[in-house]
Amino acid sequence: MSDHAVTIRVNGVERSESVPARLTLADFLRERLDLTATHLACEHGVCGACTVLVDGETARACLLLTVQADGSEVTTLEGLTEGDELGPIEQAFWAKHGMQCGFCTPGFVLTIAEMLDDNPNPTREEIIEGLGGNLCRCTGYVKIVEAVEEAVSLRGGGG
Amino acid sequence: MKPPDFDYVAPTSVDDAIKALGSDAEAKVLAGGQSLIPLLAFRLAGPSLLVDLARVDGLDHITDEGDRLVIGAMTRQRRAERDPVVAERCPLLVESLRHVGHPQIRSRGTIGGSVAHADPAAELPAVVLALGGRVHVTGHSGDRTIEAEDLFQGFLSTSIEDGEILTAVEVPASGPRTGWSVVEIARRPGDYALCGALCQLQLDDAGAVVDAHLALIGVGDRPMRAHAVEAAVLGGASPVEAATLAPDGLSPGSDVHASSDYRLHLATVTSRRALTQALESAA
Ligand SMILES: Cc1cc2nc3c(=O)[nH]c(=O)nc-3n(C[C@H](O)[C@H](O)[C@H](O)COP(=O)(O)OP(=O)(O)OC[C@H]3O[C@@H](n4cnc5c(N)ncnc54)[C@H](O)[C@@H]3O)c2cc1C
Ligand code: FES
Ligand code: FES
């Protein structure tokens, strides 16, 4: 119906666009900005594939309208590291085979980034609890938990 | 699916929000969107206008009023969960918040949105009911207060009228020697519970229970306060004895997740565990 002017800082770059109210942040990122690391599966909040950071906190990009995010700072997987270097969490996923098809991975990486910023030395139980909002249909989660433990030591925590 | 088409406004005052709601018979309030956007995506709701409260002044606060804790409707769940005042004045609320979905949901979901949505398996409506709290609402005909026992009217239904806005949720602050517990049976952590019990007990110096609050979720079309169990506990019954009264007056439906009988069984089990844990933490 109506179009709305929004300004959102995405991965450090200010983006001003005119968007319909119904456009979700996930579709804004994927369709308008071509940032396709943010995946969409369920589109109703249960799977976590669309997880991004909004003002530093994880949120479901499929459950947030772009107009609601006006004035916010959004970080997607693309913005987590600079250039083509793998960050410690991505490296840990690679080292520990934390992914198979990889569809769920961007959401997991952002969830884990926030988890380790909050709590650099989580116990195994805390890791499992912290991953509860992200679904993976391939790995059975064991390798993802191991990847988090690896990321803890790569980031200099642990021990 | 994608949400259907609708219009959107983000007023900055309560007055403007009420005007916007009154301007369109199909208008709906948008808080954190964590229940409303899924309803739109499923096409179970089709409002023509969303009135976003996120930019309204004065709805995001946590206020310690001595014997009461008042929380602004737009206070995000994650903020309340981490707030030291809430932890001290209403620890049952903090414990309950940890059971609401996942951190990624609580970062956007609000206290007022959860109470207004009134899901029969949701934790926050049950906290307000268990503790005998109330909500403050405002509309074109002025402000009013609704006691929790009059608020929940049925499945996703409250006595908040169309055109009214919930502005704050109020619960009595907990006193000394208070114990609390939230026990849920869910298919996966973070899911809405099949059945759950939220309990707060207060002891006197001799260790006798002088105040008892117990609400059950997932066992009806709204959160249910377990008055019979509370009375038994106040009368000196043990958690095991008192919990046998939990199914009194309940007639939960059966669905793909659980039969009515199983939910009644869980009402006893979760009540017993919650009472036991609350007693232990109060002692
Ligand atoms: C995957 C997932 C899992 C979840 N698990 C749980 C769970 O285990 N337990 C649980 O309790 N919740 C759960 N939720 C729901 C979550 O807690 C929601 O945040 C909450 O129910 C609604 O709050 P909101 O601020 O997002 O409101 P919205 O979704 O914006 O609004 C919900 C409804 O309330 C109305 N409303 C909102 N605010 C007001 C107001 N101030 N005045 C008048 N009307 C208002 C809206 O019009 C709408 O009808 C889950 C959600 C998801 C997506
Ligand atoms: S696509 Fe957003 S949670 Fe599944
Ligand atoms: S790796 Fe395929 S869904 Fe997780």
Q: Would you kindly provide a written description of the structure presented here, covering whatever features stand out?
A:
The complex is a heterodimer of chains A (159) and B (283). Chain A is α+β, with helices and mostly antiparallel strands and 159 residues long. Chain A folds into 2 domains: 77 residues, Ubiquitin-like (UB roll), CATH 3.10.20; 67 residues, DNA polymerase, domain 1 (Orthogonal Bundle). Chain A contains 5 helices and 5 strands; from the N terminus they run ββαβββαααα. In chain A, strands 2-1-5-3-4 form a 5-stranded mixed β-sheet, with helices on one face. Chain B is an alpha+beta fold and 283 residues long. Chain B folds into 3 domains: 46 residues, Uridine Diphospho-n-acetylenolpyruvylglucosamine Reductase, domain 2; 111 residues, Uridine Diphospho-n-acetylenolpyruvylglucosamine Reductase, domain 3; 105 residues, Enolase-like, domain 1 (2-Layer Sandwich), CATH 3.30.390.50. Chain B is 33% helix and 25% strand. Chain B contains 12 helices and 14 strands. Chain B is globular. At the A-B interface, strand 4 of A face helix 2 and helix 6 of B. The structure holds flavin-adenine dinucleotide and FE2/S2 (inorganic) cluster (2 copies).
